[in-house]
Every structure is written in C-alpha cells, then in structure tokens.
Amino acid sequence: MKTFIYDLTMERLREWVKEQGEPVFRAGQIFDWLYVKRVGAFEEMTNLPKSLRQKLEESFQFVILKEITRQVSSDGTVKLLLGLHDDHAIETVIMRHNYGNSVCVTTQVGCRIGCTFCASTLGGLKRNLTAGEIVAQVLEAQRLLDKEQERVSSIVVMGTGEPFENYDALMDFLRITIHEKGLHIGQRHITVSTSGIVPSIYRFADEQTQINLAISIHAPNDELRSKLMPVNRRYPFAEVLKALQYYYQTTGRRITFEYALIGGVNDRPEHAQELAEVLNGLDILCHVNLIPVNYVPERNYVRTSRDDIFAFLNVLQHNHINATIRREQGGDIAAACGQLRAKHMESTAR
Questions:
Q1: CA 289/CA 264 separation, integer angstroms
Q2: Which domain holds residue 38?
Q3: Which residue numbers delimit the Radical SAM core domain (predicted)?
C-alpha cells in the first residue's frame, strides 16, 4: 500500500519535497490543498507542476472513508460509522455546543483496555489507525460542516481506542491538526483522553504542548478501579497519580479527571468522599467531569439516578473539588462510544 498523504507532518512533507528536487515552499502549497481547500485528488492541485503531481500520485494515496451509517440526534449530534480500506469500521462524532462544533475522533480499531462498562472493547483491538486515518475523520466532519458554512472548532481524542497506545500516530495527528497551514485548530481547543498509560503520560508531559489532558479514573481506589478497568493492574492508581503530578509540574496545565457513574458500583457518597480526599492530597490543579454511564446492552450495569448524581457532585464540591456533570448529547442515538460499531459487527457477522 502507498503511504497516506495525510500521514505526513509538514516536516516530513518538506523533506519529501526536497528529495524530489522541488523548492520547500511546495510543501506549504500541498498542505493548503489538503487542509484548506480540502481536495480529494492530486490532479486538483493546479498550482503545482504536473511532474510533482505525478510524483505525488505515484508515492501517496488519499484516505477514503466510506460512510456506512449516519445517525443524527435531536440535539444536533451526528454520529458517523465510517468504513476503512480493509473493511474495518470506526466511529466519529460531531457535537454541537454554544461555543462551536467539536469532533470526537477514534485512534484504534477496537480497544484492548477492557473497561467493563464500555462498548468499545467488545471484540478487542484489531489494529492502530495511522495518523492520516485520524486526520481524515476531522476532514470528513469538516466537509459535512462546510455545507452549513461552519467549521470544526475543537477536537476531543476520546473515541474508540487508547490514544497513548498509538502514541506516535497520535502525535503526528496533533502536529498536523495544530499546524497553521494544516487544520489550524488551537492547541487549547484539543483534549486527549487516556485510561492511564503511565509511560506515555510522562512522554506527553515532556512534549510541552498546550493540549489538554484528561484521565479516565472511574474509581477512587485500586481495588474498585481494577474491577472496572483491568489496565489498573498494569498501571496502579498510585503510579498514574504520580505521573499526573509530573505532568502538572512540567506543564502547569489543569488535568481533567473523568469519572463514569455506574449505579450501585462507584456512585455512593463514600466513593465521592474518598475521591475528594485523593484529589485534595495532590498538588495539582484539576477538574472532575462526572459522566452518567450510557446503557450498553452487553454490559450488566445500570444508570445512576439523577438524585444520586447530584449527591455525588455535592460531596465533591463540599470538599472544594471543582466538578461538573457532563452535558449529555446524542442520547436518542447509539450514544455510548463503540455502540454503533458493535451493532455493525454483529450484523456483519450474521
């Protein structure tokens, strides 16, 4: 297979252009065609010499994402199931906010982290996506928004998969996304979420970016976290918290703790009190994002009641923890991450 043209950062593209004996500014022109004009063929890059267009055609290919399913929620959320070249499928979501349009992208086909409440892990991990396949999701969303004369204003790397287990592709995606000649999304408008891959948290801290970091914890202690998130057995909670302290000391960036509330499992006031004590013991600026868990038919969990959600929130706030309840979107479609793909896999198997 040829390399995807979207896989190339500006630095790599400049190197390739120089190898072809072309002036470096051609790389900027190519980026403009890819990410500003958003063409779908090299022959459309009309201000490039024909010989260069031919070399591009010989060396690279475009990522083709085939729309399998599109679901539109009453709140404007759009969930896309997109087919890849190898017949795998991934999910991408466009969410509408009063501050703009956010796109949630996927970094892996499937997931091996094994969180017991999540549909993304059903079927395990198939493969990593390339940087270009992640970039293509944002472009697909932008092309839909182009029809409304709107743009992608923020990105959350919170779709299927563990981004930090596909670290190099993730970083290339981010470099393309934030480049002024690329998608040009502000770093502070991008959030990467991890389940707690400790070595990659240290690496990400040393990148010294302004990109936001979110960490999925879902429990206030090792015992419960290991039951909900098997990855905790590999990277225990204390090690995760130590890495997050390093991240904060290195970057000064606030960390978001994501906590999925599951009825009768991790949503009791005593869990909230224990979580508050853990976070108050850290010397970091943080925010807790409470997420009422979406119902997944394959998982035997129930949703936390509204009263219990607010009781949990009140305990955190009483202990001076900055916390909010995530605004729910796409509740009338396959809202849980991985659900749409899981349904597709089931129907394909039948």
A1: 19
A2: 3-61
A3: 97-332
pLDDT > 60? residue 341: no
117 in the same domain as 46: no
Q: How far apart are CA 202 and CA 198, in angstroms?
A: 7
Question: Which positions are annotated as active-site residues?
Answer: 91, 337
The confidence score (pLDDT) of residue 123 equals: 83
Mention every residue, 6+ apart, whose C-beta is less than 8 A from residue 239.
198
Q: Does the annotation place 322 within a ligand binding site? A: no
Q: How confident is the model at residue 329 (pLDDT cuts 50, 70, 90)?
A: low
Annotated ligand binding at 161? The verdict is yes
Integer Cα distance of 73 and 333 in angstroms: 6
pTM for the whole structure: 0.93
Residue 298: the pLDDT is 62
Q: Is 286 annotated as a binding residue?
A: no
Into how many domains does the chain fold? 2
DSSP per-residue letters across 12-32: HHHHHHHHTT--THHHHHHHI
